[in-house]
Design a protein that fits this description.
Length: about 90
């Protein structure tokens, strides 16, 4: 009889972490976007940018991974933004 040497609690946590799309694809771009937004607006003439490239690329990456439509990504981003109190672009901007 073979003894199972698997760490089941670790395995279960890894399976749960696979479903945490928000942590992987949204939180990192949001953290980087504040610094990038200040950087790209420095010495800019005219209206400042509202959204950073990291945020737009992060939402587009989610769109591709989850195979959502643009309006679905906008709704997903708005739900996340309620928790983080962060402005998100509309589907045309994404």
């Amino acid at each position: 009889m073979r003894k199972d040497s698997r760490d089941w609690s670790l395995y279960n946590r890894q399976l749960v972490d696979r479903g945490r799309v928000v942590d992987i694809y949204v939180s990192k771009p949001l953290l980087q976007s504040a610094n990038e937004l200040m950087r790209i607006n420095t010495n800019k003439v005219g209206r400042p940018y509202k959204y950073s490239n990291c945020l737009i690329l992060g939402l587009y990456g989610l769109k591709c991974v989850l195979r959502f439509a643009y309006r679905q990504i906008e709704g997903f981003a708005q739900n996340v933004a309620l928790l983080l109190k962060y402005a998100v672009p509309n589907f045309r901007t994404i």
